[in-house]
Structure formats: structure tokens, C-alpha cells
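Hi V.,

You were right to ask for the full record rather than a summary. Here it is.
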Amino acid sequence: MPEKMEGALTGYRVLDLADIKGTYCTKMIADMGAEVIKIENPDGDPTRNIPPFAGDIPHSEKSLYFLYRNANKQGITLNLETSDGRTIFKKLIEGADVLVETYSPGYMKSIGLDYEVLKEINPELIMASITDFGQTGPYKDWKGSDIVAYCMSGAMISSGYPEGSPCRLPGTPAYDSAAMSAAISITLSLFHRGTTGKGQYIDVSVHENARMGLYPWLLPMYSYNVNPGSPPPGPEGRLGTALYPIYPCKDGKVRVVALTPRQWDALVKILGEPEVLMLPEWREFYYRIGNADAIYAIIIGFTMEYTMVELLEAGHREGVPIVPIYDIKGFVDSPHTKAREFFTEIDHPVAGKYQTPCPPYKWTETSCQINEPAPCLGQHNENIYCDELGYSKDDLSALRRAGVI
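Predicted structure:
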């Protein structure tokens, strides 16, 4: 039998106190092989109640949102509002490499579990705090949400049709952007600790990371493209249909991205070099933007003659991005998805068997995959509290009655 490949973070233990802002961070770390212990209040993480649910039956163990973002993790319950809960948590910190938390600024200090306290227990601890506006600054106590951060990133101004209202991406794109940044920072901090032996504290602002992760070109535009004394760039608009038009074809729709002169030349070649598109002004980006309707009328006559895959292959051959726009079934059944083995089967004790997406990347030297389903509430209490910390089952019953676990 071939030896099982280890993950890039195999051997590290992570304590997960993250809510919706950071649960994707700890998922990424768990997928890379780290032992992630999700610590929930005895009432359960609120994300367990986010629809949709397996079988369309509302249930705390059937939220697809929770199941996806907590696969590969262990799960315990612990009430940090109790003194016994805080004592147990400090014992867990002794053996932890990383702590991820998403409480409001000042909360961890108010219960005596801030980084200054925890690093005295474990000097090598890496602690990451993910909050809406960071731990310091004039906005640190402001209330936030994913849609607030998405709007403030600048991305919403370009979302939707020009004649309609702005719209947002589905899911939690701003929170996930911050979570990805936190996961990368944690990985770098573990590398740094390996060379220095020192832990560190990571302060992650959802607002700042959404700006960088969702709409990064605003930063160089304002930082480098403004000449001294000149006004800043004007407001952007919803130009998606002009920049990245969607064309119908024989069996669906495709999106075409022909922004650079090279990409435009490749697209014209695919179209058979029609005389009307050989005029030199078409190679100018802003000219094409201003005449997007005319281009659309020309290109649609071509795309309707071909299938999504035929157009995809033509774009790949000539060097212009042309991609199919699949519905969910089309994506699941596409040859590309199947070749990458993007979905894997998971058997959950309550939700049952289902296909779940694997991590969107594959590495050659380390494993990055889904091995275990998301934990049921308190599923690993005995494993952690009894087998590791030395509590008896009677102790656990007493702690449960006292509302500690």
C-alpha cells in the first residue's frame, strides 16, 4: 500500500473559536492537515442554523453551510462565560499551536483570555483575531456584517446590470476574504515560529481585507494613478456586461474576456476575422467599451453556431478566455470537474451520505483533501476531556449539568 501523504500543516493543533467571520479560515487549515478543534457554546454555533439544509429539513446537524465549513474538524462544547470553562480552556491552550477567535474587540480581555494572558501559558502560541474593523482605530467598536464589508470594499459598485440596482455575491465573500488572509498569515506565522521559536498575535480586519481581496485595483488607482494636483479617478459603474459579456450559444451561455489587444486579436481570429472587426479602432479598449452593443450583435451570430465546449476549446487554442456558464448540474457533470475529482463523498451520522467540494487546489508534495465530516455538537467531548485532560465521565456529567460543556 502506498504511504498516505501528510498535509502541509499535519502535526499542528488549532483551537477554533470562530463564528461566521472566520470559520472558513479554520476550514482551510484543517484541509491542510492540522488538527482543528472547533469549540462551541453548549447551545451550538449559530452557523448550524444557516440554510439550506440537507433534505430541506431544518436541523442543527444538517446545515449545508456548517457541514461544508467544518469538515475535517473535531468538535467540543465549552462555555467560556464560566470560571470552570476558562480553566479548561487554559489547559487546552497549553497544547495548542494556534488559536482563532472572532469575538468583538476587548471581549477576550474581559474574560481574562486575551493574548497577553495566553502567551504566558504558551509562549509559542499564535493567536489570530478576526473582527469587522480590527482591534484598534476609530471604527473598532462599530457593528459590521458581510454585506457592509462587501459594500465598503467598493465591489458592489460594479455588481449588477447598469440599468438595475447593485447586488452582492451569494454567500459571505467579504468574511471569506478575511478568513483566507488569516489562514495565510497563520501559515506564515508557523513558519516564522519554526525559525525563531516565538509565537505572535495576528489582527485581521474584515474591512481592510475585503478591500484588498475583493476589489484590490482601487488601491493602486488611488495610490499611483493620480498626478499631484489632479482630481482622483471618477466613480466606477456597473460595466460588467461591457467588460465581460455573456453570449448565448447552442447549449447554454459563455462568458468572454477580451480586454488586452492580444486577447482581442485572438477573439477576432476565432470569429473568422470579419471585415467589420478588422478596423484598427476596435483594438482600443475604451472604444470597445463605448461600442459594446455593436460588438455583441456581431459576436452573438457566431456563438449561436457552437456549443459551450467548442467555444471553450477555441478560446484555449487561440489564447482568449472563453468559459462556459454552467448551472449546478452542468458544473458537477463537466469533464473538467470530474477530471480534477473536485467532489468527494462524505458520510455524516445525521445528514447521511453526500457529495462535498474538495479544496480548490491540489499540491504535489502534501495532501489537501476532505477526510472527515463536520462534527456533531459535542461529538469529541470525551476524546478531549477524558482521554487527554484526564476528566472522568462523571466529571463530564457534572460539568454538563453546570452548563460548562
